[in-house]
Amino acid sequence: MNRFLLPLAGFALLLVVLLIGLKRAPDKNNLPSPLIGKPVPQFTLPNLFDNTQPLSSEALKGRWSLVNVWGTWCGECRAEHAALLQIKQEGRVPIIGIDWKDQDEDALTWLAQLGNPYDRVGADRDGRVAIDWGVYGAPESFLISPTGTVVFKHIGAMTEQVWRRDFLPRISATTGRAGSPTSTLVLSAASGSGA
Questions:
Q1: What average pLDDT values come out for the chain (195 residues) when binned by 10 residues?
Q2: Residue 67: what are its φ and ψ, rounded to 5°?
Q3: Strand 55-56 to strand 44-45: parallel, antiparallel, or no bridges (unpaired)?
Q4: Which of 50, 90, 148, 165 has a CA-to-CA distance to 119 between 20 and 30 Å?
Q5: Are 181 and 90 in contact (CB under 8 A)?
Q6: Cα–Cα distance for residue pair 12/18, rounded to 1 Å
Q7: What is this structure's pTM?
């Protein structure tokens, strides 16, 4: 009987250690990016809608923008789509899409069926641009300042909560424009929490 209890106790101890480690692990959606505070990587991609108008890193200068890396093969990308449509409707920032390792026809069908939240979409067919951005997996979203600097990175699906908590206060803090009463409240709460 003892020869069964010792391995069982060891397994139980290992399970407890793993659970504690998972509970104390940092938020996986906010992994630090080496791009934060640096210019966006230089790139030029074919425009999904018009091959005569490529999407380049130069398009990310002069105003705040949200860059969203997505693909039709990505379940979480479908989950975040409604939030992206809502962000577009607010009109605070243009959303630039990078369609990652996808078929153009699939992407065009997806956007026709679900709605198009993007101002422009670059087709990263071979995934090289996403590698330069340090993308781990879709979806990932980046906040870009008017100077073309990466300000923030979010890994995982964009939600209204993530947008209001992590993105909107960063935009409002530099523009002095809080926007809606909700965003003012979020900015005040973020300031008070040391965020």
A1: 68 62 50 83 96 93 97 96 97 96 96 97 96 94 96 96 96 61 30 33
A2: -100, 125
A3: antiparallel
A4: 165
A5: no
A6: 10
A7: 0.75
